[in-house]
Amino acid sequence: MDFNVKKLASDAGVFFSRAMQFTEEKLGQAEKTELDAHFENLLARADCTKNWTEKILRQTEVLLQPNPSARVEEFLYEKLDRKVPSRVTNGELLAQYMTEAANDFGSGTPYGKTLIKVGETQRRLGAAERDFIHSASINFLTPLRNFLEGDWRTISKERRILQNRRLDLDACKARLKKAKAAEAKAAAVPDFQETRPRNYILSASASALWSDEVEKAEHELRLTQTEFDRQAEVTRLLLEGISSTHVNHLRCLHEFVESQTNYYAQCYQYMLDLQKQLGSSKGEIFSGTFVGNAESTSPPPATASPPAVAATLPAVPTIPVVPTIVGVPNSVAESVLNPNEVKPPASGTRKARVLYDYEAADSTELALLADEMITVYSLPGMDPDWLIGERGNQKGKVPVTYLELLS
Are 388 and 344 in contact (CB under 8 A)? Predict the structure, then answer.
């Protein structure tokens, strides 16, 4: 091992000299070379960029991966330069559980069918989340991380060098100032009446020695000033490059917003499709699910009061309530509640705005288009989740979840 004691001692001396100079500046006991206002503004802007970039990076990582243990694992794999293993998203895991539950309960049962439909939607949501995380990591997190680990480290290194150059420059200025003061003191006019002329000789020798010291200090000052100016120019160029960093981060931010918009649009469309599937099959699921014992001839017990939404709508008093009786076909009850054979009440109907498109499952339902206005009212014996809707000469059952009832 090449161990240079002289170099080590020299470096240690320079370090302690700079430390003393820095301490004296902080205590106000030494002069400090001030940077120009434009340079100070560049430094403040760079520090602000670094601080906010770190915060945005950390919080975006939390947004994309809320699990802190998973974030630590990904960080370790990244530092070890190894590929991060593929991880199942929460939506995909939920989809797996729902599919397995549907197989145990019976995929042909209403509950099993619904679990399969919801599970498939959760799987698609999980896949969309995976694509969004991958896109955001490449297009947004990677540029921010590259700035902090690349450009900012270079800027910090050059700033430290500039700080050392400034301390050396201030030390040279202080050394020159002391040498000039000593030279002036030694160059004072000697007393020619002095009976011992040796004092004059010593004074002249001291003046010559301090003159040499002043010339040496001035030479060192010129060299140190040149190094300081050169380093200040290098640091200035790097700090001015922060503007280009902002432009790059702005482009990455637009890409992140675009990825997030596409992700939420996909999620909305998947959930809308699922809602349509569940809404169109809701009547089928509940039509024959809660039928009593086949040998019983008594009607089912009275149900609880319908929700407040349906309760606020007027019912047609002229149509009797026909309960579902075991052994009697459902078509008999449905014929009583056939919306095409009833008339709306004379008063109390309400207007409703359609929230989503809806495709009619059969002739008793009314197809809907988003944002259109229809008239709705309730019939006795109807499922509280359904209403009768009218649009011109068309009439049919409509799901309440697709409507916004207006006062």
Answer: yes
